[in-house]
Amino acid sequence: MTKKICILGSTGSIGVQTIDVVKKLGIKVVGLSAHKNVELLIKQARDLNPDILCIGDEKYYTLLKENFPDKIVVTGEEGLISIATYPAADLIVNALVGISGLVPTIEAILAGKKVALANKETLVTGGKIIKMVLSQKQEKDSLPILLPVDSEHSAIFQCLVGEEKKNVKKIILTASGGPFRGKKLKDLQNVNVEDVLMHPTWNMGKKITVDSATLINKGFEVIEAMFFFDIRCEDIDVVIHPQSIIHSMVEFVDGSVKAQLSYPDMRLPIEYALSFPERGKQIAVPLDLVKIKNLTFEEPDFDTFFLLKIAYECAKKGESYPVALNAANEEAVKYFLEGKIGFVDIMKYVAKIIESHRVQKVETIRDILEIDAETRQKFKNLVEGEIS
Ligand code: NDP
Ligand code: MG
């Protein structure tokens, strides 16, 4: 069982829930990081007394250092790497949002740490490279280095315990359908930021909540699953399951299907990743199926939520496509949250960027970061040209 951890993104939705879990499990936190929310970081540091603290935004460095003169205080991207590779930690929880999670994940693996990965953008953009790094570091018959935190991937991971890869026929990812399930494009023209942030079953950070409303989140999870479980996107299905009780399923060659069920509470997958190969202490509320009564399923509406279809196409094409998809989407979500574009525009502009994308080989981290930067610039040129 994990003894000492660092939490990257400790002030976010997953970060805060991770702190709740580690307190209950008695795990020691030796490092914390935030981007701008220095007040919460200070509060967490007083409570947990870690050795090292990182604040992404350099303007808060002095304030943090004044509060903790005896601790190691670091900042910026390099600071994040110092936390990801901090010698005393045996596991790093990556709860960063966006592509900022990629390099720290790689550095942590290279430094011999286990990584509990919530940051899905890491595998969407860098899956191929992470796989290469893992193949150097992962010893045969030893416990996995990379542990999923995303609830669907934790569910699949749990279903696969004791199973052989050759017996897996298909993965079935469940999706709640988000706040606009059943709506058509014409109904979505005037939805505002508040409507989008009202997720029916999960309480999460803003970026992933917007991604869940467009359903690109599920597309990202298809790509994430390809790398986590070494499976083709053709063998991954998505099914809408509005109650969010079944977190995903695996179908085997004999037709048997295994599922993992629980109330939607991220503390369970976090606890599983931190306790693996053991089980935790039942922090989550026990499931009452009689009270729940109905578990229902629907086909996704690929016409309205066409980014899911585009994500499948990008998954199949691979190389620079998922990187471009992620970059365009990160920019689109930012513009939307700033009130500069509408909800349907997120989908429209991301689709336009992918339509004009020309494939490039991805061999190195630098390739990924260059494609990311180019795509963001293309996005800005496109959107600024249209909205000004
Ligand atoms: P939040 O936005 O709530 O938190 C993000 C965290 O990362 C915060 O601590 C934030 O700091 C920090 N951060 C933001 N930008 C940067 C940056 N550029 N550099 C360094 N640190 C940064 O996100 P969530 O917790 O919702 O999600 C985290 C990841 O987990 C995402 O990839 C998401 O897709 C995934 N995930 C989340 C789930 C959920 O239930 N929330 C479920 C499954 C997956 P600050 O607070 O200071 O801004
Ligand atoms: Mg998920």
TrEMBL record:
Residues 146-229 form the 1-deoxy-D-xylulose 5-phosphate reductoisomerase C-terminal domain. Its EC number is 1.1.1.267. Its cofactor is Mg(2+); Mn(2+). Residues 5-127 form the 1-deoxy-D-xylulose 5-phosphate reductoisomerase N-terminal domain. It is an enzyme of class 1 (oxidoreductase). Pathway: Isoprenoid biosynthesis; isopentenyl diphosphate biosynthesis via DXP pathway; isopentenyl diphosphate from 1-deoxy-D-xylulose 5-phosphate: step 1/6. InterPro entries: DXP_reductoisomerase, DXP_reductoisomerase_C, DXP_reductoisomerase_N, DXPR_C, DXPR_C_sf, NAD(P)-bd_dom_sf. Keywords: Isoprene biosynthesis, Magnesium, Manganese, Metal-binding, NADP, Oxidoreductase. This is 1-deoxy-D-xylulose 5-phosphate reductoisomerase. It comes from Anaerocellum danielii. The gene is dxr.
